[in-house]
Design goal:
- This protein has 248 residues and is α/β, with parallel strands linked by helices.
- It has one domain: Rossmann fold (3-Layer(aba) Sandwich), CATH 3.40.50.300.
- The strands form 2 sheets. Strands 6-7-8-3-9-10 form a 6-stranded mixed beta sheet, with helices on both faces. It has a 4-stranded antiparallel beta sheet with strand order 2-1-4-5, covered by helices on one side.
- α4 packs across α5.
- The longest helix has 14 residues.
Length: 248
């Protein structure tokens, strides 16, 4: 089997007030997978994501990216390989134009000239916003900002794309368009979301986290049809939602 893109073993982390955010978490995500990370508020999803690109450091246990330990020696390379798209795109967009925003990450890796321009073009095309290159990000719709934030990460050519609540504040059309974009991307994806129908639609596999522990890991449809599991971990499908209606 291939080396996991992300591998965590016994990952444990507590906040200064003593709150245990992660409790001996074991997770493996392999190249090409698209995996949903599910769980109620306070489950530890965001804390886990922030360990995956070295924003947080494991207090116990270990986490690796493509076989590289997340430590000070590897941190720059880890952050190139692990691209995180945060819930609010305004946290990631700060340059005068869309094109400059997408260029920012590769430029900081020392990439210039034709290679830089090619990366920008490819990233904008991948999310369908080539026509927005010269627009100021603050003049875009929320859905457009989300796409540009994803393009900025894709321009780094990461090995894994991590999205935190990607459907938050999106209208139905933008939500559907984003799903179409994510399906076409070949990069490994981890999608942390409360949008369970979206997870079911996009992700063959789901990991359920609660109280800092992995409580389930398997086929998304099977997990979300497990009423006992759903009730125990405060997960609910929308009223009247029929899982058979999902187009996977």
């Amino acid at each position: 089997m291939s080396t996991p893109t992300i591998a965590a073993k016994g990952l444990t982390f507590s906040y200064p007030d003593g709150t245990v955010a992660l409790d001996h978490v074991v997770v493996h995500i392999h190249p090409g997978e698209r995996v949903a990370l599910l769980g109620p508020n306070g489950a530890g999803k965001t804390t886990l994501i922030l360990h995956m690109n070295g924003i947080y450091t494991a207090q116990r246990g270990e986490i690796q990216v493509s076989g590289l330990s997340i430590d000070s020696e590897n941190l720059l390379e880890i952050r190139r390989r692990v691209g995180v798209v945060f819930q609010d795109p305004d946290d990631q967009l700060f340059m005068p134009t869309v094109r400059q925003d997408v260029a920012f990450g590769p430029q900081n890796l020392g990439i210039t000239g034709a290679e830089l321009e090619d990366r920008i073009d490819a990233a904008l095309a991948a999310v369908g916003v080539t026509n927005l290159g010269e627009r100021p990000p603050n003049h875009l719709s929320f859905g457009q900002k989300r796409r540009v934030a994803i393009a900025g990460v894709l321009a780094m050519e990461p090995e894994i794309l991590i999205l935190d609540e990607p459907t938050s504040n999106l209208d139905p059309a933008s939500r559907r368009e984003l799903a179409d974009i994510l399906r076409k991307l070949t990069v490994t994806q981890l999608i942390a979301t409360h949008d369970l129908p979206y997870a079911m639609e996009l992700c063959p596999r789901a990991i359920v986290l609660d109280e800092g522990q992995v409580v389930a890991d398997g086929d998304t449809v099977e997990l979300l049809n497990n009423k006992t599991l759903m009730k125990a971990h405060r997960l609910e499908l929308p009223a009247g939602f029929d899982p058979r209606s999902v187009n996977r």
